[in-house]
Amino acid sequence: MFARSCSRLVASKTAVPLTSYLARTARPYSSASSTYEHILTETPRPGVGLITLNRPKALNALSSPLFKELNDALSKYDEDKDIGAIIITGSEKAFAAGADIKEMAPLTFAQAYNNNFIAPWSHLANAIRTPVIAAVSGYALGGGCELALMCDILYCSTNANFGQPEIKLGTIPGAGGSQRLTRAVGKSKAMELILTGDMFSGKQAGEWGVAAKVVDGGKEQLLEEALKTAEKIAGYSRVAVVAGKEVVNKSQELALREGVEYERRMFHGLFGSQDQKIGMTAFAEKKKPEWSNE
Ligand code: CAA
C-alpha cells in the first residue's frame, strides 16, 4: 500500500515542497517529508516516489551527507514494490549547483583516493533498477549536471542552465560527466563544453538530445510533466519496465550485435513472465491488463 511506502520514508513533517501544487494535485498520495535533513521525499501520485533536493542556501550543492540521504531514499523506493518510478528534482533556481566545493576544497589526493570520494554517487546508475526521471529547473552544474545525466530520463525547463564548469576550479568532472555528456552530445561538443566550462540552456539540452522534454514554464509545469510520465511508467508491468530499462542501458555498453542479442534474450525471457500473458491476453480480449508484476 502507498500508506506503507509513505510511512517507511516519513517520520515527521518538515518543509513541504511545492505545497500549493501538491495540495491541488496530489492530496491522496502526497505525504511530505521525512527524517532527512537535505532532501524531501513524498509519493505524490500512485506508484511515484518524488525526491526533492533541499539545500536551498547552497543551491542544492551535493555534499556527502546529502548524497548519503539521496542514496538511502533511492534504495528505499527501489525496494518498495508499490513504487514503479522515481523523480529527482530541485528548486526553481537550482537542480544542483554541483558537488560541494567547500567540502572538496581542502581534500588531499590521499583523502580523495583512499576514501574513493564521489564513488557512492554511482549508486543511482549502478544499483537502482526502478526508472528515475530528473526534473531539472535552474542550475544543473558540475555534479548537478552529472546527477541529471545519470537519471534514465531527463526533463528540464527552458530556464535550465546545464554545464560542467569544473575547469574553472582547476579540475575536471568527477561523476561521469566526461563520459555521459560525450555519449549524449558527441565528442566535439562535449570537449568544447568541458574545456570551456560554458553553460548550455534547457532549450539546447532538448535540441542536443540531452533532455527528452523541455517544458516552457516554471517548476510546477515541469514537475507536472515528469509526474505524468512517471505515473504512466509506474502503471505498466514492473517486470517489463525493469527489463526495458536494462536493455536500453546495455546499448550504452555493448556493441550493436551483442546488444541486439542481449535484447532478444531478455525478450525471450519475458515469455516466462505472467505479465506477458496478462498483457497479450488483455489485448486480444479488448480488456485493460491488470498487471501482476511477476
Ligand atoms: N558548492 C558549495 N556551495 C555552493 C555551490 C557549490 N557547488 N554553488 C553555490 N554554492 C553556495 C554559494 O557559495 C553561496 O553560499 P553563501 O551564500 O554562503 O556565499 C550560495 O550557494 C549561493 O550561491 P551564489 O551566491 O554564488 O549564487 P549566484 O546566483 O550568484 O550564482 C552559480 C549561482 C552561478 C550557480 C554559482 O553559485 C556557482 O558558480 N556555483 C558553483 C558551480 C560549480 O562550479 N559547480 C561545479 C562544482 S565541482 C563538481 O561538481 C565536481 C564534480 O564533477 C563532482
Automatic annotation (TrEMBL):
Class of the enzyme per the UniProt entry, highest EC level: lyase
Cited Pfam families: ECH_1 (PF00378)
Gene Ontology biological-process annotations: fatty acid beta-oxidation
GO CC annotation: mitochondrion
InterPro entries cross-referenced by the UniProt entry: ClpP/crotonase-like_dom_sf, Enoyl-CoA_hyd/isom_CS, Enoyl-CoA_hydra/iso, Enoyl-CoA_hydra_C
Keywords recorded for this protein, A-Z: Fatty acid metabolism, Lipid metabolism, Lyase
Name of the protein this chain belongs to: Probable enoyl-CoA hydratase, mitochondrial
Lineage summary: Eukaryota, Fungi, Dikarya, Ascomycota, Pezizomycotina
